[in-house]
Amino acid sequence: MAMEAWFMEDSDSDPRLPHHRNPKEFVPLDHLAELGVLHWRLNPTDYENDQELRKIRETRGYNYMDLLDICPEKLNNYEDKLKNFYTEHIHADEEIRYCLEGSGYFDVRGKDDRWIRIWIKAGDLIILPAGIYHRFTLDTTNYVKLMRLFMGEPVWTAYNRPQEEHPARKEYVESFTKKVGVALKAH
Which amino acid positions bind Ni(2+), per UniProt (predicted)? Predict the structure, then answer.
């Protein structure tokens, strides 16, 4: 099944709910690619031997990997960490996550600053570009197992909004003025 994305309704209710607008407004994956969000669909049951994953890691220089189980039973300070993940922020580097089990939501800001909700499930590898405002939460299953990939030493520093003067944010915004009308290729 292909990854799904949609424009979110404005709501302060449980972030683990889908928050579809009425009527629903789905976002094509090409639109996400225009924002710099890349996606691959892989086989999560054999990630140790997956040649496509190996190729992505080699091509993009991801030489560090770890696994993270996010659920109340396996993550210390679960509620606090989930709140931190859901706080709008950017990173100075790409955020690369490969969903091995379970599911959750990455929310990203579109060009018009509206939230786009991306539902990742087992097999989805997603790359968020440096400088994009985003956040993460679980869905109502309350469980996801993620592979985190990095170039070099892992860096988890989140810079909460506003960050308009951060070099990664400036470069991200500038990339739109350089690419006027040119979409990035989605995988």
Answer: 89, 91, 95, 134
What's the pTM? 0.92
Q: Is 12 inside a domain boundary? A: no
91 is in an annotated binding site: yes
In a domain, 31, yes or no: no
Is residue 39 part of an annotated ligand binding site? Answer: no
List beta partners, residue 27: none
Asked whether residue 134 is marked as a ligand-binding residue, the answer is yes
Domain of residue 61: give its range: 37-175
The 3-class secondary structure across 96-129, one letter per residue, is EEEEEEEEEEEEEECCCCCEEEEEEECCEEEEEC
- 89 annotated ligand-binding residue: yes
- pLDDT string in tens for the chain (187-residue length): 679 999 999 999 999 999 999 999 999 999 999 999 999 999 999 999 999 999 999 999 999 999 999 999 999 999 999 999 999 999 999 999 999 999 999 999 999 999 999 999 999 999 999 999 999 999 999 999 999 999 988 887 999 999 999 999 999 999 877 765 444 443 3
Burial class (CB in 10 A: 0-12, 13-18, 19+), 5: buried
